[in-house]
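Write out a record, focusing on structure:
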Amino acid sequence: MYNYLDFYKTISIEDLDKYAQYAGFSSDYPIDLKNFKKIFGNRKKILEVGCGTGRIGKHLISESFDYTGIDTNQEYLDHFNKSLDKSLSYHVENINFLEMPEKQFDIILFPWSVIGDFSKYEQEAVLNKSIKSWRDKAIILLDNPTKETIHNSAQGYEPTKFYFDDWKDFFAKLDLKKFYKITYATNTDRTREITVLEK
């Protein structure tokens, strides 16, 4: 059975970078972040779930976002911390999102298929917890490949795939202002969808 806590222990920082290249996320300024920022508006207090080595977080921190990043791989977090200017303000922590104490955010970001690391049951719990952890006019963003596009593959990687269309009925039961998806193409022409939940 797939256990992401064990799986990511087998993926080195170098291999993680290679998978980012395959997915089309490797560039001086990641294409997924460019698309996230189109949705951010003037929101600034952000939680990135699965921040990894800081591929996205380092940009948000340098752009003066009120940034919190969490991950369950300490090696990734150590690499992230080493790459940062210590004069900047940020918070990075080794913790599972479902075990994280409740704090309030303007943006809760699940980049690069991170939501797939949770089981279907856990995904419901993650969404419910996210909604309890947001401030007025906040958003939740969940980034995933679309159904018709290729997914990264690695031995032992068996994510719980997450598609907007499969979750619409669940979203309709939540206390949301609106929910929708946006699609974009990566630098390797893979099509991805961002599920957007708005308070």
Summary: The chain has a mean pLDDT of 93. The radius of gyration is 16 Å. The CA atoms of residues 70 and 106 lie 16 Å apart.
